[in-house]
Design brief:
four-stranded parallel beta sheet; globular
Length: 276
């Protein structure tokens, strides 16, 4: 990325340079494709989406929005910084769950990806089956999600879930999380669950958010990688599936199934109404 793009003043005129209505800044290159599709779905005018090379750079642009009027918008993962309150600026669009992965992953997208890799039809792997796996496995993580959010807010510096679920599964190939390993990890953290955090999570779930949405996005993604490999092996044969390939497959599936029936659809529709 050239030096011009790190300047808010320079970014302010990029919409004129690209001859688009607005410029949207995102964290990384993989975010471009997700947000581009949502803009195509909910916003009729032309946009240019640019990545800024990481969250620290994106935060600088967000801080600039609170100081002075700017032409650009920001689209970002909610992470845990924004999960229980609105950022407060109408030029910052956030994901419903922790990350874009939490929107890409659902029973319908997993079913689509498994069908594609296993070369079977929907009768062999239905969305309801995938949803059951998602709900059962993410329900096991509620205590650790509490610790994750508390750790993020209080800056304890602990590694709670991290970005990979491998150490918490029953074995090296199982798609199932081991409850004993999760409980031992929770105990070893030396953290006490705070009633305020537990109450916030319960309120979010009561309002329609699921534990799937609250799990760290990369952690959830690695859980799904195992589940897809296991499901395809059960239906057909072993496959080699990289993280990049799975992200691409989920994005394609998301575009195919995203509609009013998707559990995040109405949230994003409302979020895009902030654009004037």
């Amino acid at each position: 990325m050239d030096e011009l793009e790190y300047s808010p003043d320079a970014v302010d005129v990029l919409n004129q340079f690209h001859e688009v209505n607005i410029v949207v800044l995102v964290e990384g290159d993989s975010d471009i494709f997700f947000w581009k599709y949502l803009f195509e779905t909910f916003y009729e005018k032309p946009v240019k989406i640019r990545d800024v090379g990481g969250k620290p750079n994106l935060i600088k642009y967000i801080e600039e929005l609170s100081i002075t009027e700017r032409n650009y918008y920001v689209a970002m993962d909610s992470d845990y910084d924004y999960l229980f309150h609105t950022h407060g600026h109408n030029k910052v669009l956030c994901t419903l769950g922790h990350s874009i992965e939490n929107s890409l992953i659902c029973g319908h997208t997993l079913s689509q990806v498994i069908q594609s890799y296993a070369l079977v039809d929907i009768d062999n792997i239905k969305p309801d089956e995938c949803w059951s796996w998602i709900e059962e496995e993410t329900a096991k993580l509620k205590e650790l999600i509490c610790f994750e959010i508390d750790n993020n807010n209080s800056k304890h510096g602990k590694t709670v879930l991290g970005d990979n679920s491998a150490r918490h599964h029953e074995n090296s190939s199982s798609p199932l999380l081991c409850q004993q390993k999760l409980s031992e990890h929770a105990q070893n953290l030396g953290l006490e669950p705070r009633e305020e955090i537990i109450s916030n999570i319960d309120k979010e779930i009561d309002a329609g958010m699921s534990p799937k949405d609250l799990v760290r996005g990369h952690y959830l993604f690695t859980m799904c990688l195992r589940y897809i490999k296991h499901s395809v092996q059960r239906l057909r044969k072993n496959i080699s599936l990289s993280k990049d390939a799975l992200f691409g497959a989920l994005l394609v599936a998301f575009k195919l199934i995203f509609s009013e029936n998707h559990d995040h659809y109405h949230y994003y529709k409302s979020e895009f109404q902030k654009i004037n």
